[in-house]
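Retro notes
What went well: the complex prediction finally ran end to end.
Inputs used:
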Amino acid sequence: MPLNFNAKPSLVAYVTCGDPDLATTRDIVLAATDAGAQVVELGVPFSDPVADGPVIQRASERALRNGTTLVQVLELAREVRKQRPKAGLIVFSYLNPVLRLGLSRFCAAAADAGVDGALITDLTVEEAGDYLRAMRARGLATVFLAAPTSTDQRLKRIADVSRGFVYAVSRTGVTGTREEVAADARELVRRLRKFTRLPIAVGFGISTPAQFAEVGEFADAAVVGSAIVQAIEQAGCERAPQAVAELITSLRGARQRKKHSAISTQHSAKRSSC
Amino acid sequence: MAALEELECEYAKAKRDPRFQTELDDLLRNYAGRPTPLSFARRLTEKLGGARIYLKREDLLHTGAHKINNCLGQALLTRRMGKRRVIAETGAGQHGVAAATVCALFGFDCVVYMGTEDMRRQELNVFRMRLLGAEVRGVDSGSRTLKDAINEAMRDWVTNVRTTHYLLGSVLGAHPYPTMVRDFQSVIGREARLQILKAEGRLPDVIVACVGGGSNAIGIFYEFLPDKNVRLIGVEAGGRGWSLGDHAARVAAGITGAAPGVLQGTYTYVLQDDAGQIASTHSVSAGLDYPAIGPEHAQLRDSGRAEYVSASDAEALEACTLLARTEGIIPALESAHAVAETIKRAPRMKKTDIMLVNVSGRGDKDIGILREQLAL
């Protein structure tokens, strides 16, 4: 099971697939893994990303202009899996593209590609019955979001149906970087802990080494999304994999920097321009 | 989810509270102007030479459309929940104006999200909302229309959920909205049923209403659902052609491009491409310009209880002119789609047949577009 959170804290990296293009995304994912991301969330771009802030909205628009589809994201996962057997890979999607492909076809294709699980942003546990059955049948992990406003009753339900890890949303709102990690996050993890022994990853708004370290005090992992997507936006195709590797290395602290920088540079050198 | 559960719970309590219904009835009567008349359209009936046509006059309501029915109900709920900030989305601006109006009436802060394309098309309503003290925030993403305004309102809501009520304007979104909004709009059909029985001594043969999300249509249909002999016809926006992106018809006969899917928390028919990306839409009327249909309409279509057709931009414009000149009523371009279906259908019906058309709003807000589109 490649979903392991043995680093304390572990780092979960989110990328919007197809931004700037799929070949670059593949190199970014490889670089992120080599720089120490235990899990990579492969974001499927969607036309109406209601849970996302401006950074990921822009990335989704760019990826959709390139014609990126869920099927292509699964193909990308297959390539990554071949090259990095131990990387944790989660498909991160809104529900509609998954429904359009068909739940059972999606699960079969995801399992076949070597994906470990999925997180469907706008699928609530209350409506997840068919999805859970289809995912379980293929041995895929089902990750759900828990919000600070969730009641204990609901947190329990989320914990019960989650597999792999639970994604604790650090504050009410959409994705995007923030100055500080809200006090909400610490409290939410404490409440969630009563209901699950699964690793708990905290996300939404984490972009600095200090925030990463802070989350590490009370959670198993931190999810970094918008900060990575923004680094890709700013770096451009050529430099994107290296920029992401550097960001991850710096988030994880100076100790690891030397070990990984050499590897990530290799990727960016190998790939052609987009 | 917590906010949806809170709303569902509060609404369930309010429904059992006679004081809530009394206060809502009072507002509907003494503030909004209910009941609205049912007008016999004598000259339109003669002109078309078929069924006797009656118009349900939601255009005469305060703020100019049926949207106020729902806004007053949700404003009362907002107060019950102890919230002081309200957000809303708007397409044509009718719901935005109604939301801004009830917020002024109740003393709530109000933010209305509106696509920048719609702000351009419905300039007058933007100014009305500002005059009423609401903040109008332009949404520049996607197609810059209703769908994108809802996305932005949802982003605001998840961020400020503890203090804010999302006053959703149609029978869309997650539960309890489609049911709750339908309940608040069903006053249209309850009145119309009594009125037509009084005028004609029997129920109508056909009821016609336009369908964007579908709140005015479900509002007039709902009371008649058990009356199996009353045909219910929903009219979607046929836009400028049949290609995906040129219309906003989801379930009308002959339409392709819509499939069951989930958009903004609703499982229903959604216009989308093969990869599940939501399609862009077009309609001359901003209020119908939306890629999904309210889930209850999807169910009525699948069960065969209601039928759905479409009217093109050109047909709606023509219908607007005809109603203006035969009855002295300028309908909203949304409602003009229902009139367009009436023009097609009434001549094929018997002179003893009765047709009921929901004029869901008035056309004042569309004068700018009508001036652009019609060479008078």
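What we learned: DSSP finds 15 helices and twelve strands in chain B.
What to try next: split runs per interface for comparison.
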